Structure formats: structure tokens, C-alpha cells
Amino acid sequence: MSNQKSIFITGGASGIGRAIAQRFAREGWFVGLGDVDAAGMAETAGALGGQSFTHKFDVRDRAAWDEALAAFTKVSSGRLDVFANNAGVPLGGSLSENSVEEIERCLDVNLKGVLFGAQAALPYLLKSAPGSSMLITASAAGIYGTSGASVYSATKFGVRGITESLDAEWAEFDVKVRSIMPSFIDTPLLDHSPNAKANDDIRQRVRDAGLEITPVSEVADAAWDAVHGEKLHTRVGKTAKRLGFAARWMPGRLRKMSRRSAGAMGR
């Protein structure tokens, strides 16, 4: 087995996945990227300034996971030190606006994709244990339910639960499980409409709600710290940290604030 550590990142074509790839590449890690966007992965790989691996696949396809990780470990000398279970899709707007297709896609990518990835990655993480880890990209929407994003919030609460369950389940294997819980991050996803019926983009809704947008580099640094630290969930950005504090110490006030902000985020 090679001495060079390796990380495999889903959703590596852009945004948080690309930033994590760049952060670990700077530390000399071999980086693997998985995504449905081959062109985006090529751009990420080009920005890494070194050797990397790309594999186009859909995280909703369980068999494709086995193919992707087998191909990656073949070129990483069998190593998988960190698996960044990062791929996800947004969905906003009131539940009445969301189509069946949008709901099913969000549930399938954000929940099934994470579970399938964890299941497929464990045998490879075991070979690199102790010290190997799975990092899951959760969200501030998994701290307290976000108005205008009920489906997305449900998936991120689910991801939080998966993190906590597998942290216990994999402890006997010396495989760490961690999550990062970012708030609104400055990535291209913010420039998309929250759903097919919306006329504006997510970025404008965030601004209307008076919330800050966190630089993506901050998430990448948090990812590095998470897999090298002991904290189970790492909150990233002021909104996530404030939500975590309020959910624990001021739940009644948080509920009132959530209702007041429902117009801006859920219209």
C-alpha cells in the first residue's frame, strides 16, 4: 500500500466538493472525484495541480458505487483514507410547490446516495483503518427545520442521523464518521432556482432573509479539521453556529424567528 494518503469525493465537479479536493490536494493527498458532471470534474482535476482520478457515476445507483470505488482504489494503491460523502441537490420553496419528481430526486440523492456510499465505502475504509474516516456533508438545515425547504431539511436531518448512527456502528472498526453542517455557502448552487416553479434564485432569497453567505474555502478548512479532530458535527458559518446555539438554549425564540422569516425563504 502506498504511503500517500487518498480521499474520494462525490459531488467533486464544483462547489464544496471542489473546495475539499483543492484543500486535501494542497496537503499532498491523492484525490478521487465522483460526479455526474464529467466536464465539471475535469475542471476540478485541472485546478488541483497534480495527479487525480475522476469517475462519472450517479450516486443513486448502488452498483455504480462498487465500480467507482474499485476503480479508484486500483489507482490509489488500495488506499481510501477519507471518503467525502458530499453529493447532494437543493430543493426549496413551499411543499405545495414541489413536484413529485423534485421530491423523489432530492430524497434519492441526499439520502439513498449517502447510505449507498457508506455501504460501498466501508470495506475500503476498513483496509486503511485505524485512522480512516467518512465525512458527510450535512447542513444547517439539519439543525432546525428551514422554512421553504421541508424536503431538503428532512434529508439533512436524515444525514445527521446517519452520521450519529454510523459513528456508533463503526467505532469497533476504528473508522471515524464525521459531518460538516454548513449554512449558505458561496457556490454555483445559490444561483439556481429553488424549484421549477420559482422565478428567482436561492442567492436572492438568502439576501432577502438577511442571512450571510459563507466562503466555500471555510467549508474546505472545516472538512480538513473534521476528519483530523474528534468533533462529531462541525457547524460552518455564522448561521449554522447561531442555529445550533438557539436550538439548544432558546428553542421557543427560534421557533418564533423561523415563523417570522417564513415569508422571505418560502415564498
Automatic annotation (TrEMBL):
Family matches, as InterPro entries: NAD(P)-bd_dom_sf, SDR_fam
Claim: Oxidoreductase is one of the keywords in the record: yes
Pfam families: adh_short
Annotated keywords: Oxidoreductase
One Gene Ontology molecular-function label: oxidoreductase activity
Matching PANTHER family: OXIDOREDUCTASE SADH-RELATED, RETINOL DEHYDROGENASE-RELATED
Family: Belongs to the short-chain dehydrogenases/reductases (SDR) family.
NCBIfam families: PRK08267.1
Protein name, per record: SDR family oxidoreductase
Lineage, uppermost ranks: Bacteria, Pseudomonadati, Pseudomonadota, Alphaproteobacteria, Sphingomonadales
